């Protein structure tokens, strides 16, 4: 249990709760859920420019990272087809992957196919079920994809001023504006309480909030004097109590709860808002292809990691379809902006390609 680990090393409850957020981030779990300690480890095991456990902002927004990867691939001769949905994987008579078919009917033939879509989309939508072993299909169907995350993007006309560290007269960003700001995280009990409400189908009345202001580091993201605020919040169930849908009313009610919480820490925040975009778990699934809205393509619980990700006997990036490889967050070692799954899958694919 994460709680036992933190109790062993730390005394300060706010510090323990702040660290605990990385153990439940993107997970329908509380700090008291068995296995939650691994998720914390997963989030601090990497490094940035030689600094272990460090995180960083991508200049220009996260899309700039995708563009950098695309430019590097194009420089090596890759052809990139954006806004071209894949309809299904093309299979030969021998059952081997031979390319993909786009929704407009275009066939793109290749000797290997790598998919960074989720295991559910890759194997349940892009491959005929009769081509896959029944136990494999069952395993993919059983992956826990519950997500507690609602992402809210906000545009504000001034920098938030927090009671704990008020802005200076010139309203220039202070050091804390350039970090991840954790709200409603004074104690781990608050996180557990928020989780418990969601398990009963109710959005948390005091949600866990991670607030970032990327424009404090990257002024080009907003007009002069204005800022963009990124809110990563939980817990929100994918399906509300009584089967109620996440309609506009439910979205706005939850967003108002989040904004009320921020207002208590930073008076004037609500008045500074000029626009907001609320993305609940169903929205994240519909827009980004995240199953259940899960940012990791599947829970990071111990039964869905290592040799069991995405299924036992298929954790080495190869799939039951020869020539088809899984290289996204649903493969080992899981989610996070680190590229490990893609790099590992590429090495395996190259080994097989040399044998062809």
From TrEMBL:
Its main location: mitochondrion. GO terms for molecular function: oxidoreductase activity. One of its GO terms (cellular component) is mitochondrial matrix. Residues 35-160 form the Amine oxidase domain. SUPFAM superfamilies: FAD/NAD(P)-binding domain. It comes from the Eukaryota. It is found in: Mitochondrion matrix. Keywords: FAD, Flavoprotein. InterPro entries: Amino_oxidase, FAD/NAD-bd_sf. Belongs to the carotenoid/retinoid oxidoreductase family. Probable oxidoreductase that may play a role as regulator of mitochondrial function. Interacts with COX5B; this interaction may contribute to localize PYROXD2 to the inner face of the inner mitochondrial membrane. This is Pyridine nucleotide-disulfide oxidoreductase domain-containing protein 2. It comes from Sagittarius serpentarius (Secretary bird).
